[in-house]
Design brief:
172 residues; 15% strand; 5 helices; four-stranded parallel beta sheet
Length: 172
């Protein structure tokens, strides 16, 4: 959020249904995709600007699914994208199907901690290899899933990519 806002982009940060003080109940990724489509519609109506999607963990997996086919979204950032099933407290593990990335030809940045148990290197390499170009994977050494102690590197990585892929492209 801070990295994108540093470029002057309007940023909307929110919790999905049933998280924090949000109303509703978790819908295992189905309703959350609709939530994100509603957010994209609101951002478009409010600002009338090209959109960049950035999401973390579950939000990345769900958000990429909603943002890839949306023509208003010009670029995608997935931070801590879960590449292996994530155990849930009360149900079967969450499995994220990210096959749609094969057809998603928008610029994509994937950032993960090198010690993220939900994004082991081999699985991330496989996921990113299967995604359409353009794409980039950055692993931040020493970082876990939450980038504890490595948030500066995360922000710098996103800022550098946005500067190179988005700002430069729109200036040209």
């Amino acid at each position: 959020m801070k990295a994108l806002n540093s470029f002057g982009f309007p940023v909307l940060r929110f919790n999905f249904r049933g998280t924090g003080l949000s109303q509703g109940e978790h819908d295992h990724g189905k309703g959350e995709v609709e939530d994100l489509r509603t957010v994209l519609n609101w951002l478009d109506a409010e600002f009338h600007l090209p959109l960049i999607f950035a999401g973390f963990s579950f939000g990345a997996a769900v958000g990429l699914q909603a943002a890839c086919p949306d023509l208003r979204v010009k670029a995608l950032i997935g931070v801590g994208v879960p590449a292996v099933p994530v155990a849930a407290d009360t149900e079967a593990p969450r499995v994220y199907i990210l096959d749609f990335l094969r057809e998603c030809a928008k610029p994509k940045l994937f950032v993960s901690g090198a010690r993220d148990p939900f994004g082991p290197r081999a699985k991330l390499d496989e996921l990113v290899a299967s995604a359409a170009e353009p794409k980039k994977l950055v692993l931040i050494e020493g970082a876990d899933h939450f980038f504890e102690g490595r948030l500066r590197e995360l922000r710098e990585t996103i800022e550098a990519w946005v500067r190179l892929e988005i700002v430069r492209e729109s200036a040209g």
